[in-house]
Write a structure and sequence with these properties.
The chain is of the alpha+beta class. The chain has 8 domains: 313 residues, Peptidase S8/S53 domain (Rossmann fold); 104 residues, no CATH class; 64 residues; 123 residues, Sandwich (Immunoglobulin-like), CATH 2.60.40.3170; 108 residues, GOLD domain (Jelly Rolls, Sandwich); 111 residues, Immunoglobulins (Immunoglobulin-like, Sandwich), CATH 2.60.40; 109 residues, no CATH class; 215 residues, Alpha Horseshoe (Serine Threonine Protein Phosphatase 5, Tetratricopeptide repeat). A hairpin with a 4-residue loop joins strand 8 and strand 9. Helix 8 runs parallel beside helix 9 and helix 21 runs antiparallel to helix 22. The two termini are 64 Å apart. It is an enzyme of class 3 (hydrolase). InterPro entries: Peptidase_S8/S53_dom, Peptidase_S8/S53_dom_sf, Peptidase_S8_Ser-AS, Peptidase_S8_subtilisin-like, Peptidase_S8_subtilisin-rel, TPP_II_domain, TPPII_C_art, TPPII_C_sf. Belongs to the peptidase S8 family.
């Protein structure tokens, strides 16, 4: 047997614990494996049924509570019903049988409805939709479609020359085939829809989901809130999704808790998983207990929200959790500020919670740490390390490499100079995942994995400190971690932080310093403007020495003792002497500092002159002069980046040759970007003959007060043997550019690469170009400041932006316990309602621009926007990052509801008129014409020709306004079209050197956009009289006197009252004596009969009235008029209006006549005591045939009659076709119920069940709650 075959599997590399000393610590202190420590896991949710998450090492429940802080699992159960005959009716319409063993003294049940798709994570939803489609739809649908096509073939064979009746039968079969095809194309599964029942059993609240989908609640688990009885259940054997309950607001809100993804379960298992029979698979702290708090909103694809984080921290503070693990984060424009960060810091500073968080996965460039882990002072941010054992066990590398940092692990410093990464820990693991994934474990990597590993390490330390009754604080723990971490000199300190966490050393440090005076306070170290470090990055900052004033202030722990005599005396007696050190020769500072309970300032001089290009890092450390062995008690990070100047000035190029890369090796270049540059091109060329290599290319410029992604380019690429790869990206002139070429950490072998960066520049007057339609021609001046460039300008407008003001605003107090901060501080929410329409299907984005792209740094707690259709059906959600959510919608009317939350009500009241931008994606981009001079722009002359702009030359461009016919439908004044303008001729420049362009619309031209569309509205005037005088059809108009005007007004008033009276027939008869030729009189009478509440009893009168209207219109004359190609008469416009009114009245009369005939025939056939309507099927067919002379059966005006005609003939395929045209125009519950009836008639059971399942979601009684 070979040596390789005899080696045992490196199981300790699967979930690494040896690298941090956690494994040896538990071996040395087996009773300190996390016992007595509670970890709150803020994540996508944790599956209580996953392997390793059942019990702790001493047999206690592993998960002690499960919370959904997002609101995505909330069900409105405010509707209350009482039992009748042992049953209640759920909101789905199902009859729910109440089990006899349920105890409910009040007899009242709260009911609601919840769709499984709202509970499913995306991966599970995709799987279930696929499986359910095959099981419940595809098989039946294929068989039904095949049967219909067979009937069509048999009918064609049997009727080679069909008569009119047979043609209708054929049309019905074809309609069935068409409907089946349409249903197949538009198929969408909402997955199961469950009735929810909540009640109080006399002791506690309980809830039940009708997972049987048959109303048999005895088959369904009835459970109390998880914290009370540790109960959870599985939705079905198909999905294997576990869920639990919480109940709020006296039963009016049910919280159904499930996962938004597998991430949270994996994280929880790393931190505290316990496998009693397989201890090598344990998490870092198997004795710790877990509180699972879901902060990843299922409606947003597991994105976190400020509201969820605030609710989570309220729970953490109220329930005195020891630790928080937070493996989430986003980029932040400003570090260490914002409403959410304030709440997180409150938990740490005032409640003693230790908060551990991932630093981010946005490396390898500097200043890429995410919020809150890498940017917030009170939080321990963790970087990701990969050890040789992990490489062997998790990644099966064929060669053994030294330990390294993952290439993508985010790097510091923050924009205000803080180090960003506090410590590092192993950033990969094969650990448990939820049961719905249908796998027991999975490999995941990221700082999301290093954070729970470090959190588990802290749990071990806390377990031991608690067992020994030794005091600690979040700040003493952090100090111990930093001062004892393992420093690896070969690794990047911006990613490693202070080093790799070491459990036993940190514990020993805390024990040794348990009585240290700084246990009850921390040191706040700041520079000018509140910066937490010195960060010199730009060229102008490193050209001369810089003197920085540094303030150090003790901040005492906020506790019950703070204002007691003991607490006050501690502040009075506080006095410490510090020795200040820094190893960097370019840093000068004083040697000592005397500190008392106040802010003390000293100056630091940094002289970057003489430093080589690249990055330089140093720290000012403050040691206790009386005991320097404790290590630094405070630190001031100093980061200096020395940019290079362009070497090849003529070509504006930086070149690097034969650069060698080992696995994981990173080359950084900091370049002083020319002021005139607007884009750059990076070219890489492999010099290696025998292998392809994997690289991460990343470029970053830090724009002040902007997230690092503002000016970032990132690409993972495979560079083949001797291949060349080009990358273009925009740049900001005058700002230092970091260019990172990073070899992938697991890509074996050495490679050599040549690369260069070339800068280009074509710049307009402004970086953002706005053009108002009312301004006419826009002039732009474009300059080439670096070198000669080929120019070919293009404007492409891709979006129609519709600003909408709220139609309703309401501020309310969220008085539930989950929204009340400590010391009874309520949270307030403003809810804004917006209404808008879309003329056709497409994609939209909902953007609240004032609050967009702000989360952790936002002054407001959260912003969540929910979109609904006209029937209150929930469609989609959007949040602080709107461009992540492209929402596909049909045409129609929509309602968007926006919620913004804050502790201060007065802040919210200022937002009552907050506009919402509805961004409509254009189906195709719109171009604006660009010309070389003003005259060509005015007359739509020759467009701008491509040519070369020499260095230093300024070229004027003239943009012509958009022609009215190009303006998209639905655009109005105040709206604007947005897109980009580019100037370069080559493709790299077009992609990277583009600028934002907005075209603001002015008032539209005074022209009708509703040609050939006439609303059903009657002006009560005399019909035009046909002239035989030969004067062009126009008779001399006679001026009306006041008496005649009064008579007409009285006539019109009486006509308007026909429909208002209980019986308007006598008034109609009276008016007919004097105005029998007045068409609107007969039309009004027909409408009054046809809309009467007793219409079915008056069908004969409706038929007679319709025939009267038809008789009053000269249809032959109308046909002759409509057949005219051109009407040259002087009053042609007036005649046209009158003729169109007659046509509309005629069509309306035929439709109402046919509908009355059809209804009479149907009701008579049912035998529902309806008198014979005096018509027959042949007469109905004649009516339909006459109507078709004027309008197509598929026209909106004719659909009511077309549908009834098909039903009378029992041609349900045709009926469905006409019905779905009505549904497409304006869906309603009644129309969908009629479709269900037709499916029943056709015996399309699968279609019937599918639509029935959708009904509760398509037509809810109220809007879905936030």
């Amino acid at each position: 047997m070979s040596t390789q075959e005899s080696e045992s599997f490196p199981v300790f590399g699967l979930l690494p614990k040896k690298e941090t000393g956690a494994w040896s610590f538990v071996g040395k202190y087996p009773d300190h494996d996390g016992k007595g420590v509670t970890i709150a896991v803020l994540d996508t949710g944790v599956d209580p049924g996953a392997p390793g998450l059942k019990v702790t090492s001493d047999g206690r429940p592993k998960i002690i509570d499960i919370i959904d802080a997002t609101g995505s699992g909330d069900v409105d159960t405010s509707s209350v019903v009482e039992v009748k005959d042992g049953q209640i009716t759920g909101l789905t319409g199902r009859t729910l049988k109440i089990p006899t063993d349920w105890s409910n003294p009040s007899g009242q049940y709260h009911i609601g409805v919840k769709a499984a798709q709202d509970l499913y994570p995306k991966g599970l939803k995709d799987r279930m939709v696929k499986e359910r489609r095959e099981k419940l739809w595809d098989r039946a649908h294929r068989a039904t479609a095949a049967n219909v096509m067979q009937q069509c073939s048999e009918f064609d064979a049997a009727h080679p020359e069909p008569n009119q009746e047979e043609k209708l039968i054929k049309e019905d079969l074809m309609a069935q085939a068409e409907i089946l095809l349409s249903l197949e194309k538009k198929y969408a599964d909402c997955c199961p829809v469950y009735d929810c029942v909540v009640f109080h059993d006399g002791q506690t609240w309980r809830a039940c989901l009708d997972t049987s989908e048959r109303g048999d609640l005895a088959e369904c688990p009835c459970m109390a809130p998880f914290r009370e009885e540790r109960q959870y259940a599985t939705l079905s054997q198909d999905d294997m999704l576990n869920y639990s309950f919480n109940i709020y607001n006296e039963g009016k809100t049910l919280e159904v808790v499930s996962n938004a993804g597998s991430h949270g379960t994996h994280v929880a298992c790393i931190a505290a998983g316990c496998f009693p029979d397989e201890p090598e698979k344990n998490g870092v702290a198997p004795g710790a207990q877990v509180v699972a708090i879901k902060i990843g909103d299922s409606r947003l694809g597991s994105m976190e929200t400020g509201a969820a984080l605030t609710r989570a921290m309220i729970y953490v503070m109220n329930n005195k959790c020891d630790l928080v693990n937070y493996s989430y984060g986003e980029g932040s424009h400003i570090p260490n500020v914002g409403r959410v960060c304030d709440v997180l810091s409150e938990a740490v500073v005032k409640h003693g919670v230790i908060f551990v968080s991932s630093a981010g996965n946005n490396g390898p460039a500097l200043s890429t740490v995410g919020a809150p882990g890498g940017t917030t002072s009170s939080i321990i941010g963790v970087g990701a390390y990969v050890s040789p054992e992990m490489m062997a066990a998790e990644y099966s590398l064929r060669e053994r490499l030294p330990g390294n940092l993952y290439t993508w692990s985010s790097r510091g410093p923050t924009q205000d100079g803080a180090l960003g990464v506090c410590i590092s820990a192993p950033g990969g693991a094969i650990a448990s995942v939820p049961n719905w994934t249908l796998r027991g474990s999975q490999l995941m990597n990221g700082t999301s994995m290093s954070s729970p590993n470090a959190c588990g390490c802290v749990a071990l330390i806390l377990s031991a400190m608690k067992a020994k009754a030794l005091p600690y604080t979040p700040f003493s723990v952090r100090q111990a971690l930093e001062n004892t971490a393992l420093k690896v000199n070969s690794l990047d300190h911006f990613a490693l932080g202070h080093g790799l966490v070491q459990v036993e050393k940190a514990f020993d440090y805390l024990v040794a310093n348990a009585d240290a005076p700084e246990l009850n306070f921390r040191f706040d170290v700041t520079c000018a403007n509140g910066a937490r470090g010195i960060y010199l990055r730009e060229a102008h900052q490193v050209q001369q020495p810089k003197v920085v004033n540094v303030s150090v202030e003790p901040v005492f722990k906020d506790s019950n003792l703070e204002h007691s005599l003991e607490g006050q005396q501690e502040k009075i007696e506080f006095s410490m002497q510090f020795s200040l050190t820094c190893d960097a020769p370019y840093v000068s500072l004083p040697s000592h500092l005397q500190l008392m309970n106040m802010s003390r300032t000293f100056s630091v001089k940094v002289d970057p002159r003489g430093l080589s290009p690249g990055d330089h890092y140093a720290e000012v450390c403050g040691f206790d002069s009386n005991d320097v062995t404790r290590g630094p008690l405070f630190r001031l990070p100093i980061t200096i980046l020395i940019p290079e100047k362009i070497m090849d000035v003529e070509a504006c190029r930086m070149s690097y040759s034969n650069v060698s890369f080992k696995p994981g090796q990173i080359q950084r270049h900091f370049i002083e970007v020319p002021q005139e540059a607007s884009w750059a091109v990076l070219r890489l060329k492999s010099k290696t003959l025998d292998s392809a290599s994997h690289f991460i290319i990343q470029t970053i410029q830090l724009v002040p007060k902007s997230v690092f992604k503002t000016a970032q380019y990132e690409k993972f690429l495979t560079l083949s043997e001797l291949a060349t790869s080009l990358h273009s990206f925009p740049v900001n002139g005058g700002i230092t550019l970091e260019v990172v070429i990073a070899r992938w950490w697991a890509n074996l072998g050495d490679v050599s690469v040549d690369y260069d960066i070339t800068f280009h520049g074509l710049q307009p007057d402004n970086r953002s170009v706005n053009m108002h339609a009312a301004d006419g021609v826009l002039r732009l001046n474009v300059k080439s400041g670096l070198k000669s460039e080929d120019i070919s300008p293009v404007i492409s407008l891709k979006n129609h932006v519709q600003p909408v003001r709220p139609s309703e605003s309401k501020v309310r107090c969220l008085n539930q316990v989950r929204d009340t901060l400590p010391h009874n501080r309520p949270t307030y929410a403003i809810e804004l309602t917006y209404n808008f329409s879309r003329p056709k299907p497409g994609e939209i984005v909902l953007d609240c621009s004032l609050l967009s792209n702000l989360l952790y740094e936002s002054e407001f707690e959260s912003q969540l926007c929910l979109l609904f259709d006209s029937n209150k059906q929930y469609l989609a959600a959007s949040d602080a990052f709107p461009n992540q959510y492209n929402i596909k919608v049909e045409r129609g009317d929509f309602t968007a509801k926006l919620q913004v939350r804050h502790e201060k009500k007065e802040y919210l009241e200022k937002l009552k008129d907050l506009p919402l931008s509805v961004i409509h994606k254009l189906p195709s981009s719109i171009s604006l014409d660009i010309h070389s001079n003003h005259t060509h722009a005015l007359v739509a002359g020759r467009k701008y020709p491509a040519h070369t702009v020499i260095k230093g030359q300024t070229c004027p461009l003239f943009v012509a306004p958009l022609a009215d016919e190009k303006i998209p439908k639905g655009v109005a004044a105040g709206h604007y079209l947005s897109g980009t303008i580019s100037f370069a001729k080559d493709e790299d420049g077009k992609k990277a050197g583009c600028y934002v362009f907005k075209y603001i619309l002015g008032p539209s031209a005074n022209r009708s956009k509703t040609k050939d569309k006439y609303p059903f509205k009657y002006t009560l005037t005399d019909t035009a009289k046909k002239s035989k005088s030969g004067n062009g059809g126009k008779e001399e108009k006679k001026e009306k006197n006041k008496e005649e005007e009064f008579a007409e007004a009285m006539r019109d008033l009486k006509i308007s009252w026909i429909s208002k009276l209980d019986d308007g027939s006598s008034l109609y008869d009276e008016l007919c004596q004097d105005f029998d030729q007045h068409l609107p009189l007969h039309v009004a009478y027909l409408h009054s009969l046809d809309t009467d509440k007793n219409r079915l009893q008056k069908l004969k009168e409706v038929i007679a009235a319709a025939k009267t209207v038809i008789s009053k219109i000269d249809s032959q004359a109308l046909l002759l008029y409509l057949g005219m190609k051109t009407d040259t008469r002087s009053d042609a416009a007036t005649i046209k209006i009158e003729m169109e009114k007659q046509k509309t009245s005629l069509i309306d009369a035929y439709v109402r006549l046919g509908c009355a005939q059809a209804d009479g025939l149907q009701e008579y056939q049912k035998g529902d005591n309806v008198d014979w309507p005096g018509t027959n099927l042949e007469e109905l067919d004649v009516t339909v045939a006459e109507m078709q002379k004027w309008v197509d059966l598929n026209d909106t005006k004719a659909l009511q009659l077309s549908l009834r005609h098909a039903l009378v003939h029992k041609q349900y395929g045709r009926a469905l076709k006409f019905l779905y045209k009505q549904i497409e125009d304006k869906p309603s519950k009644d129309l969908d119920k009629r479709a269900i009836e037709l499916f029943q008639c056709l015996r399309w059971t699968h279609c019937q069940q599918h639509l029935e399942n959708w009904l509760p979601l398509k037509y809810p009684a109220a809007f879905q709650p936030f």
